[in-house]
Amino acid sequence: MEIYKSMIFVHLEKTAGTSMRDLFTRRYGAENVAAISTIKELSDFLGKHRGKPCKAVMGHIYYGIHAFNVTYHPFCYYSMLREPMDRFLSAYYFVKRSPGHHMHRYVNDNNVSIKDFAQIPHFRNQQVNRLSSILVPNEKGARLVGSDEKTKLAMALKVLVHDIRHFGIFELMDESVRRLAALMQSEIESVPRLNVGERKQVDELDEATKSAVREANQLDIQLYNHGRRIFESGVTL
């Protein structure tokens, strides 16, 4: 197996990102880990650290960040999928309890229900939306190249399976950690669950709410089912 000098973790919202950041920080040291989640943060990083690659880059980023020379070579991408309805509920309760989130006041002040939350475009099919765009350099620094609605799912599958290639499944964390340890050439006994709050579970929802959440995440459900089949076949490593 190739020994990778840098890891790039594409963090899809509410898929063990805090736990992964803790893991990478313990493995590589905080000074060698870059947290980049926006194009502005990427620009700021390039301005301050040009010519100084990192051993790990992570955040709500997109495939393509390697083109900005923020990592050593060879590098390896890694991501994590999560069962979409469970991930959606986790995101809803995270927003409700997190004053720093830009939607926190809106959701709480307006008593937004789970069913109402499912109608907000930003929170629908977030895994497909994140994976169906690619970050590319341009004369202004960087831009996102996205897919139209008809090709989003196909693009997300292509990026996950053929570009990122290595990914875990949140519900199969032990095996995911084992494969990640092999990629990192490191012993990882476990990844502690961090940033976890109490919330309703999917099977506690009434049928109307459950139907709304399912409809809001149809593309994510297809992506997850396909990714899980690939993961369970052992092809990703």
Report on the architecture of this protein.
The chain has helices at residues 17-28, 39-49, 84-97, 104-109, 114-117, 126-131, 152-164, 173-184, 207-216, 218-233, and strands at 6-10, 33-35, 56-59, 75-81, 134-138, 141-145, 167-169. The strands form two sheets. The protein has a five-stranded parallel sheet with strand order 2-3-1-4-7, with helices on both faces. Strands 5-6 form a two-stranded antiparallel sheet. Helix 7 packs parallel to helix 10 (218-233). It is an alpha/beta fold and 237 residues long.
Give me a quick take on this structure.
The protein is of the alpha/beta class. The protein has helices at 17-28, 39-49, 84-97, 104-109, 114-117, 126-131, 152-164, 173-184, 207-216, 218-233, and strands at 6-10, 33-35, 56-59, 75-81, 134-138, 141-145, 167-169.
